[in-house]
Amino acid sequence: MMSKNSSILLQLGLSLLVGTAAANAEPIGRWFYGYGQGVLEYGIKNDSAGGDYFSIWCDYKGAGAWFIVSRKDPLPLSSVFVVINDDQFEIPVREDHYFHTDSHVEYSIFRSLWEAIRTNNGVMHVRLSSGETTTFPLKGAAKALPKEPCETAFEK
């Protein structure tokens, strides 16, 4: 008979394996979406190691985004600079390296970024404040992201 602690450890180990397998199953260079553990995620990655990765998440608390460029997170309390065609975005990240959507300004940035990603077929240029850069193709983004963006934390 398994002890309660052993059962918890086994469940944790299995969830880590499943999470890792799911993360590695995302297509390279193509927009994807998925749902798991109460979180809807949209994103793209440029390589199998996840060295360049962009993700938007939507959950019961609101929406946000995460950038990884050259295997680096944005510096805490810095900005990520995104250019899509003529649209330029300065995206503030918090101490946890993520872009959150609690304020009116963040709400505006999120909705504008969502629209720019969906309505352009070119590329999304990303630069961290520390200098790392990457480019993500936008082809297929309109199929992965619904027309209406998810609710931001500001709206909730």
Supply Rg.
Answer: 17 Å
Oligomer: single chain
Shape: globular
Number of strands: 9
> What is the string of SSEs from the N terminus onward?
HEEEEEEEHEEH
CATH topology call: Immunoglobulin-like
Average of per-residue pLDDT values: 87
Number of helices: 3
In the CATH classification, which architecture applies? Sandwich
* Strand order of the biggest β-sheet: 1-2-3-4-7
Per DSSP, what share of the residues sits in E-state strands of 2 or more residues?
Answer: 25-35%
Provide an overview of this structure.
The strands form two sheets. Strands 1-2-3-4-7 form a five-stranded antiparallel sheet, with no helix packed on it. Mean pLDDT is 87; it is low at 1-24. The protein has a single domain (29-144), classed as Immunoglobulin-like (Sandwich), CATH 2.60.40. The chain has helices at 4-24, 104-119, 141-144, and strands at residues 32-36, 39-45, 53-59, 62-68, 79-84, 87-92, 99-100, 123-128, 133-137. The chain has three helices and nine strands, in the order αβββββββαββα. It is globular. The protein is an alpha+beta fold and 156 residues long.
